[in-house]
Amino acid sequence: MEVYHLYSGGKDSSLAAWILERMGYDVKLVTISFGLLDNWRHAKETAERLGFEHQVLYLPRDTLEKAAEMCIRDGHPNNAIQFIHEKALEAVAEIADRVSDGTRRDDRVPFLDLPKTRSLEDRFNVAYIRPLLGLGYKTIRELTEMLFIVEIRESEELQKADYEVELRYLLREKGIDPLEIFPKRHYQSRVLGWKTEETR
After folding, report:
1. Which burial class, exposed, middle or buried, applies to 187 when counting CB atoms under 10 A from its CB (0-12, 13-18, 19+)?
2. Does pTM top 0.90 for this prediction?
3. Do residues 83 and 66 make contact, with C-beta atoms less than 8 angstroms apart?
């Protein structure tokens, strides 16, 4: 059974992919891009190091433009990131019977509540699978520290493949400093590889 899993190369999406594989799924990693940058290659590198198939799925630039408008209007990125994530899930649901992501129990954004989850599944006739939904921060930290070599840096400095990179880039193109919208000291992760061969 194939599952198409939204993948940034970070610890959450990598842990979710590992759990999915242990559950018996044939995991296909999918990184979303808007074509502004080639930052998707960071996720591809991590996917290859972890031994997963990987592909890039391009979303229309107007989706990113709408997200940038939300950032500017709201003065924070929450609604924009939620909007992109929902569009990403819908795009993957167009090509797959099972879609997945690395959203966690304690996430606020992005996160689909129960009505939105049911809506996604009903509209696209898919199963939406979230392996980390029942896991808290402590458990996720323990598992990722056991499994992966992880780089953690401030968002502005980390080479990564999530939605935020191209969104920040577009805001700069519009003459807006992303640090006026995004948290100034926000840390994110990128998985560099397995910690030990025995965990594979």
Report:
1. exposed
2. yes
3. yes
Which residues partner with 153 through β-bridges?
Answer: 188
Distance CA 168, CA 156 (A): 9
CA 19 – CA 57 distance, rounded (Å): 22
What amino acid occupies position 4?
A: Y
Check: CB of residue 100 under 8 Å from CB of residue 129: yes
Per-10-residue mean pLDDT for the chain, 200 residues long? 96 97 98 95 96 97 97 96 98 98 95 97 98 95 95 77 92 93 81 75
Instruction: Please tell me the predicted confidence (pLDDT) of residue 197.
Output: 60
**Taking CA 151 as the corner, what is the angle to CA 61 and CA 47, rounded to the nearest 5 degrees?**
60
Residue 14 and residue 69: Cα distance in Å, rounded?
30
Beta-carbon count within 10 A of 176 CB: 15
In DSSP terms, which residues pair with 61 in a beta bridge? none
